What we know:
Elements: H1 7-13, H2 31-40, E1 44-48, E2 52-58, H3 67-70, E3 81-86, H4 89-96, E4 104-109, E5 131-135, E6 155-159, H5 165-174, E7 179-182
Parallel strand pairs: 2-3, 3-4, 4-5, 5-6, 6-7
Antiparallel strand pairs: 1-2
Amino acid sequence: MKNLLPLGLLLSSLCSVAATDEQGDKAGITEAVAINQLRRAGIAVNKIRGRGWIGAGIRTENDDVPAAVLKNLQYIKGLEEVAVFSNKMEERLEAIADVPGLKIILIQAGNMSDMSDRSLRHLSKHTEVTQLSIKSDKVTDAGLIHLEPLKKLEKLKLIDTKVTKPGLEKLYKVLPKCVVELN
Length: 183
């Protein structure tokens, strides 16, 4: 496994570089147009020189950004990491549900968040994810069922959740290679 920096550190140390790929997709949206729309909305989209697209950060300050703008993340080739800090977690997780190839997802629900166990259903499409961090006092054992399709998940960090040992034991039966850190 390659060495990965913690996402918070990674996003704070990345340099912004303009996209050069102008090939569009079926919707007619090019990567450069998508990145431009995201950046104009205040969404951080960054890469490390020579490594391709690495991360995007959606912060609470961006809660007024329409979900349609966030859906532009799916047009960024090689995007590996997304950090979502929001009070509109349901909408934000739905917006990133179709972003292909994500390896790392960091979720931190705000104090006034609409996060729920049901919100985690949007993560089930991200079958390439190897690391997932969830901070929300509204996540319980019931939400873990939505993580079961994440067969490549190696590390799950749960912070301030209401997940119990029996809930983790049930998840471990489905994802035996996943290491869980419970805070």
